[in-house]
Amino acid sequence: MQDSNNTYKYSPTTAIKRDRERGREEMDNREDLKSMLPFLPLLPCSSNLCWPSQVVKSLETLSKGPLYSEVDSGELLFNAISHIRDSLAVPSLQPLAPFTHAGHALFFDELISRAEAAKWFGEVVPALANLLLRLPSLLESHYQNADNLFNGVETGLRLLGSQEAGIVFLGKELVAALLTCALFCLFPASDRGSKRLPTINFDHLFEVFFMKSQMANDVSKRKLIETNNYFILEGLVSFERKVLPLEQLPLCVSYPEADFWSKSVVSLCPFEVHSTGFIEDQSNGALEVDFANKYLGGGALHSGCVQEEIRFMINPELIAGMLFLPCMEDNEAIEIVGAERFSNYTGYASSFCFSGDHVDKRNVDSFRRCKTRIVAIDALCNAGMRQYKCTYLLREANKAFCGFLDQSNYDHHKRPFQDCGSQGSQCIQTDKDTNVVVKDFQMDEAPSTSVEIAMNRGEYINQAIEYSDKKGSWCLDHEDKISIATGNWGCGAFGGDPELKSMIQWLAASQEILVAKQLWDCHHEHAHTLRRPSVLYYTFGIKSLQNLNQVCQWILSHEWTVGDLWNMLVEYSSQRFNKETDLCFFAWLLPSLFAHDAKRSNLTNPP
Q1: In what residue span(s) does the PARG helical domain sit (predicted)?
Q2: CA-CA distance, 520 to 483, in Å (whole number)?
Q3: Where in the sequence numbering do the catalytic residues fall?
């Protein structure tokens, strides 16, 4: 705006316009957004994202409720969704599963009560439509704020491809809008296979109602009802792809070779056996293991109902990760922080049953994420006898190690040393008593093992930690990183040996060095109170692990190291693979203990 003297005066309106134009220019240049455009139902228009005009009209109609939209049945909702899909003009929008329409009618008109249906059409569907109308602005706001969360760390929504370590932070309202797109089957699907992405639309889930048994209907019904819980949520959820690089690099935790495990002198951590209870019910702030399919979520949007699928039902925000996280390779894991729990349940697989709403009372961290850390690690599929080959023992140990390793905290503390260039440095490594020992090498030389971290001694370390604390970290507070809650990983449909898998997870958890926590404790008060990570193991009552606690206590009493346990597993597995023994690992390791048990069993159960 100009005055009579041809000088410019400040105009709030002009400033707002200028900021918006700058934001749109930045949107145009965002590589993260470009990677997602083929997988979103929105169109780029005028340096922004938008719905086609006809979609906006349809959503506005739905948002006004059934008295205006006349959508008050499953069949009419399916028709409304089909009309929206037809208006998208997205070439890669695949046809829906054949019986999706019948599933809508069955679910909304028969499977749920009239009161539930009235709530869906009167409250939920209008709220979902309003949420979808806001999706373009939610995404625009997300990308405008993504660069401000951390200095130098990319956090925007993007395709986190194979071998691409990184993290995405999503606001819960954006997560809800993305899940609504999935519920309405609006995501383009034809390019997802080529990028090795899991299914994201809900059409197969609706088809289950028509095609499957009553048990499958009960399971799938609960998966859909979760959507109703999203409209008062605030905060963030983070999705991280964790990678152990296959090549040995300086300042990097790389993929260990068998020799690394064999020579490890790290002492085994505490091991607690729980014969009852569930991983998600632990209250120790532990990292909770998702017994994952390599495609995140597994059968969560189909009729699957085992450990991973159940977790995605009761913490439905996990489903959002299926949009942009391709399948995991052997050296990868996925960690999700902040997904809130909404449901209680009983049973498993065919006996699964919803048992009421769950109020998640866990605290939040400084990023307003619920303090729930879930790591997805996929075990060897169709394990059979090959699980006893050293190649696959190494694969499983490294997979668990990748999942358990707090890579975000490690990266957070290594960054200041990278910023200071190639200076003389030292390596901090943990010995069997968890004391820190120092080993010299130059910053531009590779460490001698894959878990050594380069840094200088003395005052520089204090300066680096102070600098690192100011830069920020996406990990939870250091005192929350103690335990790993897990169980019979890969031992159900995947065919893993429960005794073998429990030991593999134990040694991986023990080797997981909490470098950032050690650094903290080495330079802050009460350093002597450092605790080792511990394993909380939930056996789910399976018979083959009834002696797990006795075996673990025997091993701990003999002060075994990670290397001791690994070498014993290798020796046993070699004999098992070559058919030199048919004993299970525990009986092979401690024959006297198990012979006594067998004798006692014969006395109490005479033929």
Answers
A1: 113-241
A2: 18
A3: 290, 308-309
Q: Is 307 annotated to bind ligand?
A: yes
Domain identity same for 230 and 285: no
Tokens representing 563?
């290397």
Q: How far apart, in whole angstroms, are the C-alpha atoms of residue 480 and residue 476? A: 6
Condensed to tens digits (0 to 9), the pLDDT of residues 485-498 reads: 999 999 988 999 99
Does the residue 355 lie in any domain? Answer: yes
Residue 461 lies in a domain: no
Q: Which amino acid is at 274?
A: H
Spatial contact of 396 and 377, defined as CB atoms under 8 Å apart? no
- Contacts by residues 80-86 (CB-CB < 8 Å, ≥ 24 positions apart): 81/184, 81/185, 83/58, 84/55, 84/58, 84/59, 84/184, 84/186, 85/184, 85/185, 85/186
Helix, strand, coil percentages (3-state) for the chain, rounded to 5, are: 45, 15, 40
Q: Say yes or no: 275 and 296 in one domain.
A: yes
- The torsion of the CA quartet 244, 249, 253, 254, rounded to 10 degrees, works out to 40
With vertex at residue 161, the alpha carbon angle to CA 157 and CA 167, rounded to the nearest 5 degrees, is 45
Residue 89 has phi, psi (to 5 degrees) of 60, 40
Q: What is the pLDDT of residue 149?
A: 81
Domains of the chain: total = 2
pTM: 0.84
pLDDT at residue 255 in the model = 94
Residues 521 and 379 in one domain: yes
Helix (H, G, I), strand (E, B) or coil at 2: strand
CA angle 182-75-188, nearest 5°?
A: 25
Contact (Cβ atoms closer than 8 angstroms) between residue 128 and residue 136: no
Q: Known binder of ligand: residue 293?
A: yes
Element at 484 (helix H, strand E): strand 483-487
Rg (CA), the chain: 27
Residue 435 is assigned to a ligand binding site: no
Write out the DSSP string of 337-368: E-PPP-EEEE--GGG-EEEEE------B-TTS
CA 126 to chain centre: 30
Instruction: Extract the residue ranges of the chain whose pLDDT is less than 70.
Output: 1-26, 212-233, 251, 407-481, 513-532, 596-607
Residue 132: give the domain boundaries: 28-234
**Under 8 Å between Cβ of 562 and 266:** yes
